[in-house]
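Feature request, filed as a ticket because there's no other form

It would be nice if the structure record came with a short human-readable summary line next to the tokens. Right now we just get the raw output. Example of a typical job, pasted below so the devs can see what we mean:
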Amino acid sequence: MIVGIILAAGSASRMGQVKQLLPLGSRPMLWHVAQAACQSQLDEVHLITGASAEPIAVAVNDLPLRIVHNPDWQQGQAGSIQTALRSLPPNCDAVLFLLADQPLITSQLINDLIGHWQRCGKSIVRPCHANNPGNPVLFSLAVWREALANLSGDHGARQLIVDHPEAIGYLPVASDEIFLDVDTIEDYAKMRQRFAMGTLNNFDC
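Raw output as currently delivered:
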């Protein structure tokens, strides 16, 4: 069993507003990430909320996912990961961490990551284009549950990835645009332009 974890608890302080809810097309940014996850081969999708929990939950209320609130969201991303781990069913084999500000992620990419994990024998799997790795990242819980549960701060699982390059299986993808996130007003303007051009979901993974 593989569960998708969408990390959406942050306050987006660099943007000065709730970036997860910024519109792209006719939907909030977060909705596009959640829809890709829900349409993929993931067995369940859990959305971790924190700041602005109520409007974020409302934004995805038409999708078949589980809302899990992190009351300690101000402690950083590690707390959201630990909240997510506590929400998992006992038969969960792996988790795929998705970021709420990467709306170009596709269900095909998620499916390809799952398939690569099942074939490659590595305990961490992530996409990569021309030596540029990106998100989402899949972790085998048989290997990494305890380490994930003991993370601290706002860097999430990044340090585990840095410290264990031998554990990573990279999935080549055709374009690194699929990794783009939204951290600034300028990033958002560029993302809106991509949606207006109809480029969403046109990546050949």
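Something like this underneath would help us a lot:
The mean pLDDT is 92.
The CA atoms of residues 80 and 140 lie 18 Å apart.
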